[in-house]
Amino acid sequence: MGRRSEVESTNNNPAEKFLEWSSANKCFSYYNKEEQKKEYLPIPFSFLYLAERTTVKGFDDSQNTGIYANEVKFLSENLEVKNFKGREIANGVWKEIASDVDRAGGKFAKSVYAITKKGTLINISLYGGSIGEWFEFTKKTKKRLPDEWVTVDGVEERKKGATTYFVPVFKFNKSTTVEEAEMADKAYNVFEEFENGVSPRKTEVDKYEDGNNFPDGESPDIDDLLF
Fold it and tell me: What is the C-alpha separation between 93 and 96, in angstroms, rounded?
């Protein structure tokens, strides 16, 4: 199949870093396991897309813990949404469980797998304001993703009602070299082996205070995904 199949239509997660957008800090952050602290990734930074999946992220205030789900390629597949204390929140296709997930504090999210310039396999979690920017960036240009580096090179302010927030600006940077494409193909093979693993898949446990493959033209309302 290969990387290109991602734009034409479990075991341990292979990603070495799990990034999330921090509106307050206007950059992506990740949890440094060795230092046991959150690190902030300065802008600009570039990545090469491998694949993306749909999942759920959020925080369950009632039990003071994070919310997660399995990752699916299509919205016609079941999402099993739980919190990290074991409570099942919902189980079903997104359009049937969206309201239950929202009430519990969960949000529709994209899990983007990519590599850095050094070949590090990373996972970029996009939800809230950042997912809207990703949708806008990829909706007409998704087929360029396997062949061009994406750079997060700035931040823009957005408002929703009385709320002001900041979002990443995604831009295409340059085309991949033959060597970079080969590096990406090898990383994709690692991701594919992970996805085809026997054990059920679960995203990285978040450190809480942690274009679009929609079937038949179906997509969620962007405004409903922001907060």
Answer: 6
pLDDT < 50 regions, the chain: 9-10, 198-219, 221-227
Residues 190 and 121 sit within 8 Å (Cβ to Cβ): yes
Strands 121-126 and 17-22: parallel
Degrees to nearest 5, angle at CA 10 with 71 and 100? 35
116-125 per-position pLDDT tens digit: 999 999 999 9
pTM: 0.82
Instruction: Give the pLDDT score at 223.
Output: 44
Q: What is the dihedral of CA 55, 126, 171, 184, to 10 degrees?
A: -50
For 216, the token pair is 């038949």
Least Cα distance to 168 among 192, 140, 198, 135 occurs for: 135
d(CA 227, CA 75) in angstroms, rounded, equals: 20
